[in-house]
Amino acid sequence: MGVVDPRHIKMGSRKYYRYMGSLTTPPCTQGVAWNVVKKVNTISRQQLSLLRAAVHSVSLSTFMIKYAHYCIIYLV
Protein backbone atom coordinates (compact mmCIF):
# COMPACT_ATOMS: atom_id res chain seq x y z
CA MET A 1 0.00 0.00 0.00
CA GLY A 2 2.91 2.35 0.61
CA VAL A 3 2.86 5.71 2.34
CA VAL A 4 -0.49 7.51 2.38
CA ASP A 5 -0.71 11.26 2.86
CA PRO A 6 -3.92 11.84 4.87
CA ARG A 7 -4.44 15.18 3.10
CA HIS A 8 -5.14 13.24 -0.12
CA ILE A 9 -7.78 10.91 1.29
CA LYS A 10 -11.20 11.56 -0.21
CA MET A 11 -13.73 12.20 2.50
CA GLY A 12 -17.25 10.81 2.20
CA SER A 13 -18.63 14.24 2.97
CA ARG A 14 -17.43 17.76 3.64
CA LYS A 15 -19.92 18.00 6.50
CA TYR A 16 -18.82 16.74 9.87
CA TYR A 17 -19.83 16.71 13.50
CA ARG A 18 -17.55 18.40 16.02
CA TYR A 19 -17.66 18.03 19.78
CA MET A 20 -15.38 18.52 22.74
CA GLY A 21 -14.47 15.40 24.66
CA SER A 22 -11.50 13.49 25.98
CA LEU A 23 -8.95 10.94 24.85
CA THR A 24 -10.31 7.37 24.71
CA THR A 25 -7.34 5.84 26.50
CA PRO A 26 -6.03 6.52 30.01
CA PRO A 27 -5.51 9.09 31.37
CA CYS A 28 -8.59 10.21 29.30
CA THR A 29 -7.30 13.78 29.09
CA GLN A 30 -10.07 16.37 28.60
CA GLY A 31 -10.11 19.16 26.02
CA VAL A 32 -9.88 17.08 22.84
CA ALA A 33 -11.80 18.31 19.78
CA TRP A 34 -13.36 15.33 17.97
CA ASN A 35 -14.31 15.64 14.30
CA VAL A 36 -16.52 12.91 12.81
CA VAL A 37 -17.54 13.03 9.15
CA LYS A 38 -21.26 12.85 8.44
CA LYS A 39 -20.90 10.34 5.58
CA VAL A 40 -18.22 7.69 6.01
CA ASN A 41 -16.25 5.68 3.45
CA THR A 42 -15.49 1.98 3.72
CA ILE A 43 -12.15 0.20 3.59
CA SER A 44 -11.20 -3.37 2.71
CA ARG A 45 -10.16 -6.03 5.24
CA GLN A 46 -6.61 -5.73 3.90
CA GLN A 47 -6.58 -1.97 4.49
CA LEU A 48 -7.92 -2.52 8.03
CA SER A 49 -5.18 -5.07 8.71
CA LEU A 50 -2.54 -2.63 7.48
CA LEU A 51 -3.98 0.15 9.65
CA ARG A 52 -4.04 -2.07 12.75
CA ALA A 53 -0.45 -3.14 12.13
CA ALA A 54 0.61 0.49 11.70
CA VAL A 55 -0.87 1.60 15.03
CA HIS A 56 -0.12 -1.65 16.86
CA SER A 57 -3.78 -2.11 17.75
CA VAL A 58 -4.78 -5.56 18.98
CA SER A 59 -8.53 -5.01 18.73
CA LEU A 60 -11.14 -2.34 19.10
CA SER A 61 -11.85 -3.65 22.60
CA THR A 62 -8.47 -2.31 23.73
CA PHE A 63 -9.89 1.20 23.73
CA MET A 64 -11.70 2.50 26.78
CA ILE A 65 -14.54 4.86 25.99
CA LYS A 66 -15.32 7.49 28.60
CA TYR A 67 -18.87 8.83 28.54
CA ALA A 68 -19.81 12.25 29.85
CA HIS A 69 -23.16 13.21 31.33
CA TYR A 70 -23.72 15.44 28.32
CA CYS A 71 -21.89 16.90 25.37
CA ILE A 72 -22.60 19.52 22.74
CA ILE A 73 -22.35 18.26 19.15
CA TYR A 74 -22.15 20.65 16.20
CA LEU A 75 -22.81 19.83 12.54
CA VAL A 76 -20.29 21.96 10.64
UniProtKB/TrEMBL annotation:
Which residues does the UniProt record annotate as the domain Alpha-carbonic anhydrase? 1-76
Gene3D superfamilies (alphabetical): Alpha carbonic anhydrase
Q: Which GO terms describe its molecular function?
A: carbonate dehydratase activity; zinc ion binding
Pfam families per the UniProt record, alphabetical: Carb_anhydrase
Top-level division of the source organism's lineage: Eukaryota
Task: State the protein's name.
Answer: Alpha-carbonic anhydrase domain-containing protein
The organism is Amborella trichopoda
